[in-house]
Amino acid sequence: MSIRYLSTRGQAPALDFEGALLAGLARDGGLYVPESLPSFTPSDLAAMRNLSYPELATTIIAPFVEGSIDRQTLSRLATESYRDFRHQAVAPLLQLDQDQWLLELFHGPTLAFKDFALQLLGRLLSHVLARRGERVVIMGATSGDTGSAAIEGCRHCDNVDIFILYPEGRVSDVQRRQMTTVQAHNVNNLAIKGNFDDCQALVKASFVADQFLPDGRSLVAVNSINWARIMAQIVYYFYAAFAVGGPERAVNFSVPTGNFGDIYAGYLAHRMGLPINNLVIATNRNDVLHRMLTTGTYERQAIEASLSPSMDISVSSNFERLLFDLYDRDADQVAQLMRDFAKGHITLSDEALSKAQALFSSARIDDEETCEEIRFIWERTGQLIDPHTAIGTRAARLCADKADGPMVTLSTAHPAKFPAAVAKAETGQVPVLPGHLADLFEKEEHFQVLDNDLEAIHAFMAAQCRV
Questions:
Q1: How far is CA 153 from CA 39, 149, 222, 434, in A?
Q2: CATH class given for the domain over 88-109+228-424
Q3: Nearest-angstrom CA–CA distance, 287 and 304
Q4: DSSP state, 380?
Q5: Residues with Cβ within 8 Å of residue 291, at least 6 apart in sequence
Q6: Where residue 466 falls among pLDDT bands split at 50, 70, 90?
Q7: Is 402 a catalytic residue?
Q8: In this predicted model, what pLDDT tens digit does every residue of 227-247 receive, in sequence order?
Q9: Using an 8 Å Cβ cutoff, are 146 and 181 in contact?
Q10: d(CA 164, CA 199)
C-alpha cells in the first residue's frame, strides 16, 4: 500500500508522494511527513550490507515513492544521480581514531552533502513534470550549500525556473560563486538584504500565497521543508552504519546541523530499524537546538555571523517534524506550539523533552573552538576538514560518554569551500578546489540584490519566469 503524507499541522489534505514532492510546504504552513514508515528487520538490514550506494538508495527509498514511481525508474534515477560523484564509493568513510569515523559527504558536484538529496530531487522533478506536462517554479532559501546544489541538480530541467534566495554577504565566496557563475537560462540568484532566517521566511510566505506566479504555475520547494530532501538523506545513515559493522553493532552519529533536516533523517533511519544509540546535534554559536535539548526551551535569538555560515540559523524548520512525533502526532497541539513560537518561544513538556533526550545529545562549538579543532584534526590525522565538520568532530568527542560503539561524524562540506576559516585555523595548509571548479573565480557572476520585501521579490520572480 502506498504511503500517504500528512501535514504536521493537520489542516491540509493528505497527499501521495508525487503530491508531497510538488507541494513542498503544506497549505496550512505545516511540513509533510509520512503517515507510516517502512520498517527493516535485522535480516533485511544484513541483506542490504553489500549493496552499492545507488542500489541501497533504491531499496531504502522505494517504499516512500510506491504508487508514484516504479522501482525500475527509481533505480535508473538513483544511478544517474550518483554516477558522477568523484569517489567510487559515493560516501566513503575515513577512520580518525579508534571508533571515530568521518563520513565524507562532499564528493558530489558542489562539494557538500546537499548534493545527495538535490541530485536525486532534480531528476525526480524532471520525471514527474515531463509525465504530467507541467512547468513549475522552484524557490529556495540557502545559507550557503543548498542553493548551489539545487541549481546543479535542476539547471538542466527545461520545465523548471529556479529562484534561490541567499543572505547578501553572509555566504562564503566559493559558495556564492558556485551559484552566481552558473550560466543557465532558468537560474536566478537573489541576494537578499538580511540573514538566512529572512530568506527562509520569504520562501515560506510565498508558499502560502503563490498567486503571484504566471499561468497558474505552482511553487516547488528545494529546501529541506520538501520531504524528498529528507527521504534521500536517510540513505547515507544506513550506508555508514553498514561500513562500520552494522547492523550487528549499533552506531552513533555526530551531525553539524542548523535547520535540523540532516539529523532528522538520522532519526528516521533509527525509527526504520537501523540500530543507532545516539545522535549528536552539533551546533555553532547560533545554538537554538542545543538550548532546546538542554533547557527544553525553543527560542530564536539574533543570528551571529560565524566561521560556519551554513549553520547560522535561529529557526530550525525541520524541528517541527520532530515535534510532531514528540507530541504523539497531535497536529492540533503542534499547530498551537508553532503559533506560540511565532510570538517568541515555546517550552517543551517534560515528556516531550525526555523523549528527545533519550536519543539526542548536543554540543555548542564557538569559532575559536572550531579553529582549534581544524588544527587538532590536521595535526593528529593529516586530514584537513571544513569548519562545519570540525564542529561535528569536536561535538562527537564532547558527547562520547553517551556513545556506545563507533561514532561517525558527517563531514558535510569540502574544506575548499571555506578557505578563510581554514586559514584562521593556522594549519599552514591551503585547501584546493577540485579540478572541475578550478576556474570558479574567473567566471562572471550573475545575481540580483533585492530588499527583504515580499512584494518586490514576487514581482521580480513573475517578470523573470519564462513563457
A1: 29, 6, 10, 18
A2: alpha beta
A3: 10
A4: H
A5: 297, 298, 299
A6: confident
A7: no
A8: 999 999 999 999 999 999 999
A9: no
A10: 9
- Tell whether the torsion through CA atoms of 349, 350, 352 and 356 is positive or negative: positive
Report how many helices (DSSP H) and strands (DSSP E) the chain contains, helices first: 18, 15
**Under 8 Å between Cβ of 195 and 170:** yes
Residue 182, all three cell numbers: 552558473
pLDDT, position 210: 65
Rounded to 5°, the CA angle 207-213-215 comes to 130
3-state helix, strand, coil in the chain (%, to 5): 45, 15, 35
The CA-based diameter of the chain, rounded to the nearest angstrom, is 58
Residue 158 confidence (pLDDT): 87
207/40 Cα distance (integer angstroms) = 35
pLDDT of residue 19: 95
Going from N- to C-terminal start, the domains of the chain cover 88-109+228-424
What are residue 362's DSSP bridge partners?
281
Q: Is the pTM of this model over 0.70?
A: yes
Report which secondary-structure segment, H or E, holds 344. Answer: none
* 293 in Cβ contact with 360 (< 8 Å): yes
One-letter amino acid for residue 459 of the chain: A
